[in-house]
Amino acid sequence: MISPPDQIDIDQAPDSVAFPQHECGLFGVFGHPNAAALTYYGLFALQHRGQESAGIVTSNGPGTSFLMHKDMGLVSQVFGQDELAKLKGTRAIGHTRYSTTGTSTIKNAQPFVVDCVRGQMAIAHNGNLINADVLRDELERKGSIFQTTADSEIILHLLAQPSENGGNVLAALRRIEGAFSLVIMSERELIAVRDPFGWRPLALGKLDGAYVVASETCAFDLIHAEFIREIEPGEVLIIDENGLRSERPFPDERPAFCMFEYVYFAKLCRPRLRRGTKDSLRTRLCPQSLHRPHIFAAQPAHPRFRRPGKTKFNQGNGRRKTRGGCGRFNRPRHDGARARCESPRGRREGSAHPGQLSAPSIRLSLRH
To answer: Does the structure show a pLDDT above 80 at 163?
Structure first.
């Protein structure tokens, strides 16, 4: 739980205390000759979701080896022309990490790759598993050896197990609980998974006949891909040479999209964020029965927040917007990425949680 601004020194407190730890950026491509380059640009657009590490895995289909490159740092630091040139293939998944469980080290950088009875598999994960400890203990008792401290590896071990009593990938996915979006690549398929509550975002798009998936549609904008739809809560979308196939292995749950996506991470370019939800919030937070204000301003800053009724809208405050750099309120945890976040005056940008910025801004507005 985050302490109030007057009870915490944001520069001295550990990141696990000072900052919410929720998000990563996911991107996947199936059926495009420049899969690695598209994934690079997709991760670049999703850089605000995580700055600790970045990685890409590519494949040319059955009978070919997976190719992977990942390292600590920003996307532009991890990948250059030489690295991308080596990542041949028509399918790819990518990940930019903001750690939720596990330490911030290269061994926890994703995607993870394994060669198992099902063939080669790679996974990129955004979220947290609430039954991770139970599953890890069970798998270790059965002989599984873990190479990382991230709960994402647990999913890979479940997927890699031999089929029992006709079990398959869907049966393995039914065992995990929590908030998660997954992009899984096998030798024949690209699989996009969203938890039954819809905590974490995941969207489907299309470019030149190839399918793409991403945590946010800003990744589609950068590569000029067409947005098709969101992956629905509880949906497992399987993409292969025959097209799309949707499965529903999870029990139906009441949708519970994470509020932090609205106010903390997402770039607010997804259609659902532009319409009904924002209108509902505006109606509840500023009812017409209140006295008529002189102006109306979003707090924290919101680029598309429309005025309630006929009240004049002014932009009351602002913040530095980024693409391919550090997140709006994220502080990276290694010197390589942190150096990219320094302003010309030496003050670190994006080092405060929005809740810590809101109270001082409101007090300043009331004084004026």
So the answer is: no
